[in-house]
Amino acid sequence: MRKVLITGSNRGIGLALTHQLAAQGDVVFATCRQPEQAAELRALAHRYPDQVHIVGLDVTDEASIQQAFHVIARMTPALDWVINNAGVLVEGESLRTLDFATVMRVFDVNTLGPFRVVQRFLPLLQGSKQPLICQMTSIMGSIALTEGPGYYSYRGSKAALNMMSKVLAHELRPLGIPVVLMHPGWVRTDMGGPQAPLRPEDSARGILRVLSTVTLRDTGRFLTWEGKELPW
Ligand SMILES: NC(=O)c1ccc[n+]([C@@H]2O[C@H](COP(=O)([O-])OP(=O)(O)OC[C@H]3O[C@@H](n4cnc5c(N)ncnc54)[C@H](OP(=O)(O)O)[C@@H]3O)[C@@H](O)[C@H]2O)c1
Question: What is the DSSP string of 78-123?
């Protein structure tokens, strides 16, 4: 039985991960910005009352992360996995229309958010015998695979997340905590859109299969939900 913290667990891939972990008997600290509006997540918590604990957490707000830390630290001395899943994507960007406040907001969520969470929750990860940090990134953050214009903020924020997480992997290696970058595939969520080929539950199943095999030897790797390596 693992204890797992997930950000952005009220919909999309985060909700699917929460569902599958709970169904297999793991305990999930399912965090989201607005628990009172998270109807599907609340239904899951009702179905799995011993497995799913809903906790408010906005990855851009240090006070809310601190508050979530106090709530979770009261429930457990250790966390096995932290899955930094929350993310945002802005459509229709071009040089002419680029809005810098929006770019900053996307970096705030996608790049800095995971680091705020890891910084605060590191003591609980250090209490685990098999700790792991999973940073939900994207193939769109791969510089090597970039084709065509657009998505400045999303692509930039995920490329920056990749780099900062690589550095984090080096810093946490002596502590025995692996850090992996995970591309979940193109998934049918609010972000991925209705054309996406993958269902959230299929992506989540693949992600969990890959994460369950990760050891310190894999730290700093950029992997897909199918366990394939991606170029930076
Ligand atoms: N779907 C794809 O095809 C795809 C492909 C590659 C990578 N990804 C990555 O996979 C992750 C999950 O994507 P998804 O498709 O499940 O997206 P989604 O359906 O749009 O869900 C995004 C989640 O992030 C949360 N979130 C946004 N801002 C937040 C904040 N400031 N604090 C806490 N939570 C916040 C949202 O909460 P609210 O409901 O409160 O907004 C929501 O729970 C993201 O990191 C995304 O970049 C997705």
Answer: --SEEEE-------S--TTT--HHHHHHHHIIIIIHHHHHHHHHHH
Domain boundaries defined on the chain: 3-224
Of 173, 197, 172, give the one whose Cα is nearest residue 187. 197
- 91 C-beta closer than 6 A to ligand 1: no
Dist CA 138 CA 136 (whole Å): 7
CA of 199 relative to ligand 1 center, distance in Å = 15
> Model pTM?
0.98
**Mean per-residue pLDDT of the chain:** 98
Pairing of strands 3-6, 27-32: parallel
| Confidence (pLDDT) at 62 | 98
26/42 Cα distance (integer angstroms): 17
88: amino acid identity, one letter: V
* Residue pLDDT, tens place only, 114-165: 999 999 999 999 999 999 999 999 999 999 999 999 999 999 999 999 999 9
Give nearest CA residue, ligand 1 atom 44.
Answer: 87
**Domain 3-224 - what CATH class?**
alpha beta
